[in-house]
Prior knowledge:
Layout: E1 2-7, H1 15-29, E2 33-38, H2 70-79, E3 82-88, H3 96-104, E4 116-123, H4 130-142, E5 147-155, H5 162-173
Bound molecules: flavin mononucleotide.
Amino acid sequence: MKILVLNGSPRTGGHTAAMVEAFTRGAQENGHQVDVVNVCQKKIAGCLACEYCHEKHSGHERQCVQQDDMQEVYPLLDEAQMIVLASPVYHHSFSGQLQCAINRIYALDKPKHLKKASLMLTSGSDHVYDGAIYEYQHSFLNYLHLEDMGIFTAHDEQNRSLEDALYQFRKSLRA
Ligand SMILES: Cc1cc2nc3c(=O)[nH]c(=O)nc-3n(C[C@H](O)[C@H](O)[C@H](O)COP(=O)(O)O)c2cc1C
């Protein structure tokens, strides 16, 4: 299975990066192909709501007018069977950089082969995940009709343990 991970953390050696590494290792050991996009190292602007991507019979349906690094992500989105959203919790939601990338999926409406999704969140405190989980459930599971392969969260001291992350995602990928 082709898996696309969108890492929304600006910290290269941080907690999100550790979870993404643990996930990637586990997934690759199970024979999956994993592409990781570190969205904070890309130039990905927010959606302009210009509807260029939705102009019917224009020859540019499903294409975003903005020629920034999201153009590298669109083919990966269309190829992937599973998407993993990985983010630090910022003010009870995703990082702004990840939110920009998520909003830009609007151009594709529904990525061609996506069937499954997973969510990985790290935070300072516990009980701060509802905002991100709400968006994941409604925009990804319900709207895109994706199968939930698991939500993994780690706060405070849990961020130091990679084994939990490995266990969770190896388990979720067995299907
Ligand atoms: C701008 C900003 C906002 C944050 N907001 C929250 C928050 O609302 N709740 C929380 O528990 N932690 C919050 N944090 C802490 C991070 O979620 C936490 O340190 C996380 O583990 C960082 O992940 P990283 O190492 O991948 O950057 C915030 C951190 C930053 C920089």
